[in-house]
């Protein structure tokens, strides 16, 4: 089955370049392109893509605003922010809005292709640019998280461990012999207890608190 992708960027050269490359991949179907956030939201609602690759600085509706809207309307669609900016005022709001990945436009095309495929199945472990990951770790470090992990049940902790290893809900369900619906329910509880918005933030928080290291030993 092909991964369906919507490309969003207000620079036609970038848009055409991404489309040309991705259409050479037999397991990718570029189902649409958009030049601004409003058009992206409209097309996404019509096509329901697996993955949306989105710029930040765009007219009418920027990528962060569009991401926030789309995550509410199409929670199953994954969003990768692909931009030239590593500024904190873009990075933190984008992740808070629900972006599943954040990368720079100078990423190697093959790496972008692999990231799209990984994010499509819920594997966002390597979807963040290293500088973005460091910014997020610094940001979450401002809060006292020492008691948050103590709130997790044994099953929730087990599922979070799998998340930190970059596994998708489907893979976690298979490993733990439970349904994907059960995994999603536990993930919702984990997000609430850790005060994060998505699995990427949960994994980063675990790493920052050395929880990931602790449960490996």
From TrEMBL:
Residues 145-210 form the HTH luxR-type domain. Pfam families: GerE (PF00196), Response_reg (PF00072). The modification 4-aspartylphosphate is found at residue 55. Residues 4-120 form the Response regulatory domain. One of its GO terms (molecular function) is DNA binding. SMART domains: HTH_LUXR, REC. Keywords: DNA-binding, Phosphoprotein, Transcription, Transcription regulation. PROSITE patterns: HTH_LUXR_1, HTH_LUXR_2, RESPONSE_REGULATORY. This is DNA-binding NarL/FixJ family response regulator. It comes from Geomicrobium sediminis.
